[in-house]
Design goal:
By secondary structure, the protein is of the alpha/beta class. It is 37% helix and 24% strand. The protein has two domains: 110 residues, 3-Layer(aba) Sandwich (D-Maltodextrin-Binding Protein, domain 2); 112 residues, D-Maltodextrin-Binding Protein, domain 2, CATH 3.40.190. It contains nine helices and eleven strands. Strands 1, 2, 3, 4, 6, 7, 8, 9 and 11 form a nine-stranded mixed beta sheet that branches. It has a two-stranded parallel ribbon with strand order 5-10. Helix 7 links the parallel strand 6 and strand 7. The protein is elongated, with a radius of gyration of 22 Å.
């Protein structure tokens, strides 16, 4: 009788557990900071909709792809371009990513924002002016309607999603000025721009923080976002990908 009672008690305890606790192995996602930020904001909904517990690891797209092929994560988060993210990963670690073996799903789009210090009187630029600033053709804010002061550009690495998109959609093959100061992730942009009165930079909307002013631009610049697996996703990963696609397109 004691054995039967013990089994009943244990069974009742299992029924009361939250769904996520029934999955011993969480689905691990690694990669682009922009997607990681967006999914972190809806993590509870993502787990509820997919029925899976989820671990989100913010790195960059190329490192996320490397993690998928190394078997240390289930899904890579990629922003901007699958091809360039894979190429960047292989440049860093030759042979680490096989683009042909990837199964990718577009899960959303993110607006790229151009930001300045709040004290900057400039409130709008054309895409051509943005390009001129980033190439170094425009060196002083007075040249685009601002007050006298040398433009200080903060950029992202060439394998970062927002940088890939700006290079393709704004720069159109032109090189970024060599004096642009690189930052590691989009999350690093707002804190430095907030401290520098003559600064100029860009980032994905999900990474926007306090202390900066966004500029109006006459051209929409958007970044596609992907979730990718090595080969076909597992059943658990597929559920997470479908749930993420729904949540990021609400």
């Amino acid at each position: 009788m004691k054995t039967i009672l013990r089994i009943v008690v244990l069974s009742a305890g299992l029924v009361s557990l939250p769904l996520s606790s029934l999955h011993a192995d969480p689905v691990r996602l690694s990669g682009a900071a922009a997607i990681c930020t967006a999914l972190t904001a809806v993590k509870a909904d993502l787990e509820q909709a997919s029925g899976e517990s989820v671990v989100l690891i913010s790195k960059n797209a190329g490192k996320g792809l490397q993690d998928v092929f190394a078997g240390t994560c289930d899904i890579a988060m990629v922003a901007g371009s699958m091809e360039k993210a894979a190429a960047g990963a292989n440049q860093e670690k030759p042979g680490s990513v096989d683009l042909s073996a990837l199964k990718s799903t577009v899960v959303g789009k993110e607006t790229i924002l151009f930001v300045v210090h709040p004290s900057n009187p400039v409130s709008a630029l054309t895409a051509d002016q943005v390009k001129a600033i980033l190439t170094g053709a425009v060196k002083n804010w007075a040249e685009v309607g601002g007050t006298d002061g040398a433009v200080e550009i903060f950029t992202l690495g060439s394998r970062n999603g927002p940088r890939i998109v700006v290079d393709e959609q704004v720069m159109a093959g032109a090189a970024m000025v060599s004096t642009a100061i690189p930052r590691e992730t989009p999350k690093d942009i707002c804190p430095i721009v907030a401290q520098k009165p003559n600064s100029f930079s860009f980032l994905g909307k999900s990474s926007l923080g306090p202390g900066v002013k966004t500029l109006s631009i006459d051209k929409a610049v958007t970044m596609p976002t992907f979730l990718a697996t090595k080969g076909e996703p597992s059943a658990a990963a597929a559920k997470v990908i479908r749930a993420a696609q729904t949540l990021l397109n609400k």
